């Protein structure tokens, strides 16, 4: 990718720095020893993520990710894990929806997205949208999986 394109993708200098910082020093990197394990990949770019999420009652009590991917997918996973820790399932599903609207070009209230708002420039590059939503899709799957586990437990109680 030409440098001018990269600059456009990463937005302003401040946004570039935020993305670089998360990609170079990912928050919540690693794997938990308990909780939901979700493996997802983005074949169009080669990004691979393993997200582990531990729920306590309805809230995310611990979260971690591992795998490998491009700058956008790694930064997005780092920003996402930072943002959703301690939040309820309903809150994180709403944030996932907001993020997906933002990176597909919709005007949204970006402040709710914390550092993840710095990925808004991805909307100008449709082929990179999947890099940015990979971690969020894994999170949605984790919520579904935990809901299912809870239902099964209830059915056998
Ligand atoms: Zn990617």
What report would you give on this structure?
This protein has 157 residues and is an alpha+beta fold. It has one domain (9-155): Sufe protein. Chain: A. It has 5 helices and 3 strands; from the N terminus they run ααβββααα. It has helices spanning 3-10, 13-24, 71-84, 89-103, 129-156; strands at 36-42, 47-56, 59-68. It has a 3-stranded antiparallel beta sheet, with helices on one face. Helix 2 packs across helix 3 (71-84), helix 3 crosses helix 5 (129-156) and helix 4 packs antiparallel against helix 5 (129-156). The N and C termini lie far apart (56 Å). 34% of the residues are buried. The mean pLDDT is 93. It binds zinc ion. The site of zinc ion (ZN) has 8 residues, from helix 3.
List keywords for this structure.
about 160 residues; alpha+beta; Sufe protein. Chain: A; globular; binds zinc ion
The major pleated sheet works out as:
3 strands, antiparallel
Bound molecules: zinc ion
Q: Structural class, from secondary structure content?
A: alpha+beta
Helix percentage: 40-55%
Classified by CATH, the class is Alpha Beta
Q: State the separation between the terminal residues, measured CA to CA.
A: 56 Å
CATH architecture label name: Alpha-Beta Complex
Strand order of the largest sheet: 1-2-3
Summary?
With 157 residues, this protein is of the alpha+beta class. The chain contains 5 helices and 3 strands; from the N terminus they run H-H-E-E-E-H-H-H. Strand 1 and strand 2 (47-56) form a beta hairpin.
